[in-house]
Amino acid sequence: MLQQVDIIQKESTQHSEIESKPSFQPEFRNINGIRVFGFPDKASLIDFAQGKNKILIAVNAEKIYGADKELKDLINSNIGYPDGIGAVWALKQKGIKEVTKIPGVELWLEIVRSNYKKKSFYFIGAREEIIQGTVHKLKQEFPGIQLVGYRNGYLKGEEEDKLIEDVASKKPDFIFVAMGSPAQERLMRKMKARHEAVYLGLGGSFDIYSGKTKRAPKVFIDYKLEWFYRLITEPKRAYRQIKLIDFAWKMINKKY
User: Fold this and answer.
1) Distance between terminal CA atoms of the chain?
2) DSSP one-letter code for 236
3) Inter-axis angle of helices 42-49 and 104-115, nearest 10
4) What is the model's pTM?
5) How many other CB atoms are there within 10 angstroms of residue 120's CB atom?
6) For 43-72, what is each residue's pLDDT tens digit?
7) How many CB atoms lie within 10 A of CB 146?
């Protein structure tokens, strides 16, 4: 009888240890006043973010170089992750070796893929036809997805307040906002104050997912040249990309 009790207690202890096993704890570095976490893969970031009332904010060279105090404070109070190769370069230079680029355009779909059967979602952003196309495709790709709400990213007058109240009343686990930075981060900060969830800003990800625009060809992605593809296909980005020359110079000379 005592032996059986010992076995039950041992199994109970082992079960408790499994349940209390801490989630992945990433390292982080401060780069030009911005706290950036390093993750070896998307799964580690998703694991770290689970259950936290935080905004996942993509950090690239442009943010490291030119983010104002408001944006820096917002990133530092949430979870900044390396969305660009410049951020990966900076983290590796500061001693985090196991770090990879995590494109937001891939991250949100991985979150949906790993959680759509057990968690709920709310989608905000892009034009009406884009968000409608995104929702239609999501329902086809992820049957049974718990989609509690969605709307376009054009908020007029009192629409923002109504959106925040709707989100708070429906209590989604994940909220994705595709409005461009820093507008999306400001909106998520307001929603976060009313409702605890994992928030993620997505820029133009809905446009890509719905088929409105195309992501860089695989060869550019594989060789870490996605930024260059965007430059040659969107020449208006040239002024923004000029800043990266100074960023690269500072990185080479370890000014950050």
Assistant:
1) 65
2) G
3) 60
4) 0.84
5) 18
6) 999 999 999 999 999 999 989 998 999 999
7) 16
